[in-house]
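TASK: fixed-backbone design
INPUT:
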């Protein structure tokens, strides 16, 4: 028997109903905040992700499903959606009429990570992206939208971790200081962090290896290096969040695994999912639109890990088995014909039906209806009409 590929999974009923209701809630909630749905393809040119996520990130270095397309182009199954949404914003000149635009998208992403609980090779995200707005109030509103979405689903126990990663003005000084410090502790770092030390020292800050955590315990904080504008921006985000009653904690170790971030970076974490504790992550990427060939437009967004959210949600609210409202139980061929027609018409009229055409005994079918949790059973039998001494089955 051909089995599932490792790291991939089937989502089966009744769990699919949980997915549907979370997705429906997201659509309604995000649309109230002025977001419209966009559906980019799952396949893009590899260069799009290499340039946006960054050559020296784990995602680009080792986690992308990339293969040869036609005419020497490399194609990649998207590991995230932000780069695709930015590409669409530029390619369709969405900015031309009004640079401020808000989009959401729901769909599968692909990363060749080591599979474990909460970490899959095909996983699903709900993304929200805002273009053309650099106001810190936008950052606060986006985090508010995310947290009130979780509240709508009655998912609690979530913490907002917040940091600022500065901008191309102020980050280099921090990077240099950090590299200097880490170079003095190189012998304590894991092989991955030794490589990061060269190309991407900020990533050492969120390495999970205990020796690396110890090595960065007293690392400098980006927050001490923020330029005046970034500092003011970050303070305003915090004040706006406090004003909206959204609790958060400043986390100077939060660097995120993608290189495009500037200024505000955040993660929504839970203690209920074990090692994979981030339910959502996002931040500003004010340089990315221009970097990918578009006009200089600021942007900010986040993505919710739908698989992890479903796990949190289903632990509290297990998926209900919704049985048919009417279970048709026909006896005999003429009755099956009638049941096929009636049950179809009833389903079309908006009633959840099931009709069993198997021809098994009444007892067997009653048992099946019971197992399915049918609210009503409709036994379709035969009617004999006697006319002029003849018996006709109707
Ligand atoms: P990310 O932090 O890589 O950010 O992913 C966002 C969320 O997707 C994570 O917090 C997690 O819940 C979920 N996730 C990531 N990888 C996996 C996996 N292998 N299995 C299951 N769930 C996973 C981004 O992708 C950015 N594009 C977010 C963003 C949007 N930033 C700005 N706009």
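OUTPUT:
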């Amino acid at each position: 028997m051909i089995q599932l590929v490792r790291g991939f999974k089937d989502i089966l009923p009744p769990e699919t109903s949980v997915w549907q209701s979370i997705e429906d809630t997201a659509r309604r909630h995000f649309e109230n905040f002025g977001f419209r749905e966009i559906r980019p393809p799952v396949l893009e040119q590899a260069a799009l992700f290499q340039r946006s996520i960054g050559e020296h990130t784990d995602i680009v270095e080792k986690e992308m499903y990339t293969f040869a397309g036609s005419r020497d182009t490399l194609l990649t199954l998207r590991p995230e959606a932000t780069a695709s949404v930015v590409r669409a914003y530029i390619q369709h000149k969405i900015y031309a009429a009004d640079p401020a635009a808000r989009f959401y998208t729901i769909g599968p992403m692909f990363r060749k990570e080591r599979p474990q609980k909460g970490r899959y090779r095909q996983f699903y995200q709900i993304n929200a992206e805002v273009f053309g707005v650099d106001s810190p109030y936008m950052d606060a509103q986006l985090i508010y939208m995310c947290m009130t979405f979780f509240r709508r689903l009655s998912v609690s126990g979530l913490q907002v971790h917040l940091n600022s990663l500065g901008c191309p003005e102020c980050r280099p000084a921090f990077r240099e200081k950090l590299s200097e410090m880490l170079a003095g502790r190189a012998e304590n770092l894991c092989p991955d962090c030794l490589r990061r030390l060269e190309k991407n020292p900020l990533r050492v800050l969120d390495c999970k290896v205990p020796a690396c955590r110890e090595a960065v315990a007293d690392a400098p904080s980006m927050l001490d290096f923020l330029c005046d504008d970034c500092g003011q921006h970050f303070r305003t985000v915090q004040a706006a969040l406090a004003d909206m009653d959204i609790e958060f904690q400043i986390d100077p170790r939060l660097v995120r695994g993608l290189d495009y971030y500037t200024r505000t970076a955040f993660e929504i974490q839970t203690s209920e999912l074990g090692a994979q504790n981030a339910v959502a992550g996002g931040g500003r990427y004010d340089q990315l639109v221009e970097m990918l060939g578009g006009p200089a437009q600021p942007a900010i967004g986040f993505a919710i890990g739908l698989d992890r959210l479903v796990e949190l949600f289903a632990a509290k609210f297990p998926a209900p088995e919704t049985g048919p409202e009417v279970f048709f139980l026909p006896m005999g061929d003429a009755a099956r014909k009638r049941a096929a027609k009636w049950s179809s018409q009833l389903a079309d009229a908006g009633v959840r039906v099931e009709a069993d055409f198997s021809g098994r005994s009444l007892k067997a079918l009653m048992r099946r209806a019971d197992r399915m949790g049918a609210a009503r059973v409709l036994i379709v039998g035969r009617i004999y009409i006697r006319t002029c001494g003849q018996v006709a089955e109707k």
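COMMENT: Residues 30 and 145 are 7 Å apart (CA to CA).
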